[in-house]
Amino acid sequence: MTSNIFTGTIPALMTPCRADRSPDFKALVTKGRELIQAGMSAVVYCGSMGDWPLLTDEQRMEGVERLVEAGIPVIAGTGAQNSQRAAALAGHAKRVGAKGLMIIPRVLSRGSSIAAQQAHFSAILDAAVDLPSVIYNSPHYGFETRADLFFQLRAKYRHLIGFKEFGGAKSLSYAAEHITGQSPDITLMVGVDTQVFHGFVNCGARGAITGIGNVLPKEVLHLVSLCESAAKGDAEARRRALELDGALAILSSFDEGVDLVLYYKHLMTLEGNPEYAMHFNASDALSASQKHYAETQLKAFKAWYAGWRQAER
After folding, report:
1. Angle CA(168)–CA(206)–CA(258) in degrees, nearest 5?
2. Which site among 100, 106, 175, 201 is 20 to 30 Å from 89 CA-CA?
3. Coil, strand or helix: which one is 220?
4. 1, pLDDT greater than 50
5. pLDDT, tens digit, for every residue of 28-82?
């Protein structure tokens, strides 16, 4: 394990679903253990990948508790309908032994108000003082946290130690230039699978939160390792990282769309995890053509990767 919970490769766990469409926490813990044993440094629960809007606060808290009790290093998501609920989730995460917080902006009301967002972030950070935290920046939430707000918060909350960027290459470059570049104590995390190479090699990222890494942990860990070496100037690692990143591009792109959980759960079932076949909403399903596309892409990537690795030897 690393001393900074926000370094390394960290899968955003999905929530397995029982036949009655309730969370399967036993399966959640089993998958968390498997991913840590595969080499992941921690797990995130419950972010967008964990279907946080579809779970009750009590269910989310139980998931965090179960993972902590199993000895799995957990970063808890704090997405919620209001700041009070988000703060309650943060306080609970600290009490039960989570290792970090991932804090998204206020959603649904006054989302574009900087003052409202500052109050929202502050309420969550106040509720879990000293628990290492990152702000999760994503244009999909309707608010982009800029450097001035980040450093206003950090001046008061020293446990705000990093920035997870879900935007594209331009957003990552902004974060590196104006936020994490200001101090070696601030960690940049790549928050979208399509930007792993750019984040590590060009922007100095030290961690990646991954969706496709749930499905292909070995391959994603390999990519991050190559990117880390490339960032240090290894030309061969850079070449191979670009090759692997390109081969993963379509599977990684599912992370950017509204059906990301549906895609990755389907890929998980293809990889022998039947507990991911169900969704909390019965109407949530990929179309037949989407399933075919995902299956074709997974098969093509696995064939390519096997040949690529063989050629390396």
Report:
1. 35
2. 175
3. helix
4. no
5. 999 999 999 999 999 999 999 999 999 999 999 999 999 999 999 999 999 999 9
Q: Can you give the pTM of this predicted structure?
A: 0.95
Q: For residue 104, what is the DSSP state? A: P
Who contacts 16 (Cβ-Cβ below 8 Å, separation ≥6)?
A: 23, 24, 27, 28, 31, 273, 275, 276
CA–chain centroid gap for 73, Å, is 14
In the three-class reduction of DSSP (H, G, I as helix; E, B as strand; rest coil), residue 199 is classed as helix
Q: And the tokens for 83?
A: 């700041």
Q: How far is CA 58 from the centre of its chain?
A: 21
Residue 291, both tokens: 């399933």
Give the tens place of pLDDT for each residue, 86-141: 999 999 999 999 999 999 999 888 878 999 999 999 999 999 999 999 999 988 78
Q: Which two tokens stand for residue 126?
A: 């106040």
pLDDT tens-digit readout, 28-39: 999 999 999 999
**Which secondary structure element, helix H or strand E, spans residue 311, and what is its range?**
helix 288-312
Cα separation, 103 vs 154, in Å, equals: 13
- Picking from 153, 107, 109, the residue whose alpha carbon sits closest to that of residue 133 is 153
Number of Cβ atoms within 10 Å of the Cβ of 111: 14
SS3 of residue 166 by DSSP: coil
